[in-house]
Specification:
By secondary structure, this protein is an alpha+beta fold. The chain contains 1 helix and 5 strands. The chain has one helix at residues 65-81; strands at residues 18-23, 28-35, 45-51, 54-61, 85-90. Strands 4-3-2-1-5 form a 5-stranded antiparallel beta sheet, covered by helices on one side. The longest helix is centred in the C-terminal third of the chain and has 17 residues, at 65-81. The chain is elongated.
Length: 97
């Protein structure tokens, strides 16, 4: 289920590369993985959590995308155990103009 997180995402923007939308009978939450693969940030990443319409960065790394993948996997697992049904979604990078 979480294998799609391991795939390398395209370079750059502040659009998430992977997202899990997690729904319960009363709530919707999202877990988003942002990754950068360029010479300046090396393999940086951050994990954003959306709850009640508010987004908050929970974890980030300047050098290890693996760190963020493990955090996303853990958070999605916890939400799933708390009666949320989480659905993965890969977000395609926008084509440069």
């Amino acid at each position: 289920m979480y294998g799609l997180l391991v795939a390398r995402a395209a370079c750059g923007a502040e659009q998430p590369h992977h997202e899990f939308v997690c729904r319960s009978s009363t709530e919707e939450r999202a877990v988003r993985l942002y990754s950068r693969f360029d010479a300046h940030t090396r393999h940086g990443c951050r994990v954003e959590y959306v709850k009640g319409g508010r987004a908050k960065t929970l974890w980030s790394s300047q050098s290890s995308s693996t760190y963020c993948v493990s955090k996303v996997t853990h958070l999605v697992t916890v939400l799933s155990q708390d009666n949320f049904k989480c659905t993965p979604r890969t977000i395609e990078a926008a084509e440069p103009d």
